[in-house]
Amino acid sequence: MKASVTVSGELPPSLQAKLLQSGRPGLLLVLGISLLAALLLSVQFGAVPVALQDWLTLLDFSDDQTLTGSSYVLWNIRLPRALFAVLVGAALGMSGALTQGLFRNPLADPNLLGITAGAAAAAGLSIVVLSGMHLPIPMSWRMWILPVTAFSGALLVCFALDRVARWISPGSIVGLLLTGIALNALSAAVLGLCTYLATDEQLRNLSFWTLGSLAGASWLAASLLLMLLLPAWWWVRRMISAMNALALGEAAAAHVGIDVRRLRSQVIVLVAVLTGFAVAWCGMIGFISLVAPHLVRTMGGPDQRQVIPRSMLMGGFLLLLADTVARCIAIPAEVPVGIFTALLGSPFFLILLRNARSRLA
Fold first, then answer.
1. How far does Cα 48 stand from its chain's mean position?
2. Taking the model in full, what pTM does it have?
3. Could you tell me if 292 and 89 are in contact, meaning their C-beta atoms sit under 8 angstroms apart?
4. What is the Cα–Cα distance from 152 to 123, expressed in whole angstroms?
5. Which of 92, 202, 242, 282 is packed most tightly, with the most Cβ within 10 A?
6. In the chain, what are the domains?
7. What is the pLDDT of residues 286-326, one digit of tens each?
8. What's the rounded Cα separation, in Å, for the pair 335 and 171?
9. What is the C-alpha R_g of the chain?
10. Do residues 15 and 249 touch, judged by C-beta distance below 8 A?
């Protein structure tokens, strides 16, 4: 008969201590304060200057139609964009922490599963194929076509990933990784075909989308993502003990009563939904899901009870910082934020590879 699902009492004390080491209990508070400070600074910078009077105007207005000038920019552009950047970064940070916990590898991120590439391929089909069909779609609905299509592509890849991985190697996380690599290649081929067939205008739209941007942020998008993050966080909290057990290996997790196959499916669905929503609205924003979890794990230990919320705060902080720089570095133009996340993440990824090689040497 299998033991209880809890980790304590079933594993060697030395491994329990190493696994559940949270380290630096004040780190969560520091990250929260840093994120709040970055949020306040982000809304101050941009093409239109914001003064104290603009903040005071927001406190006593009753209808946004009365807002003008920089007050309008602050309420309808800066604030929703900054909050959306934080929420998207939090979603990517959570996705990265879950993926690295699933594969027990700090070099893993949701891109390995093909979810991001699947959303990109679906977006390419939407931009190139659907836009050329001239469907009788009301104007008020057209803004939803690209996000809904990209999100559907992420969910489709999630379904294919789970089914194909079960067919190739049931219950194996390695089989899941190999399936993700194959789906990545397939999605890249579809995106390449869309790029080849696109007109000049479609190619510009597709190129800008794949570089990533938060220009489409709004109060509606931020509200939808918040409503998605809250139940996702509740769901993750129910899985944290199982994720901690999985850190010691599939056999050890199964020994203490963890259904590894079910846990794997739950993680895949969560990662697909969170990453799919982020990619659907913002395009392809890389490295946040890779860098944020590894940074907080390095600073505060491997306990998933601490890693996941810290990764959310760190992801929000990093993406907000990158978006602020993207908005301000070439005023009045705007540089795609995906460029800056790549500039930030690429050197960090090389450092990770070097450290991994040093540990293996």
1. 29
2. 0.86
3. yes
4. 9
5. 92
6. 13-360 (1.10.3470.10)
7. 889 988 998 888 887 778 888 999 999 999 999 999 999 88
8. 43
9. 21
10. no
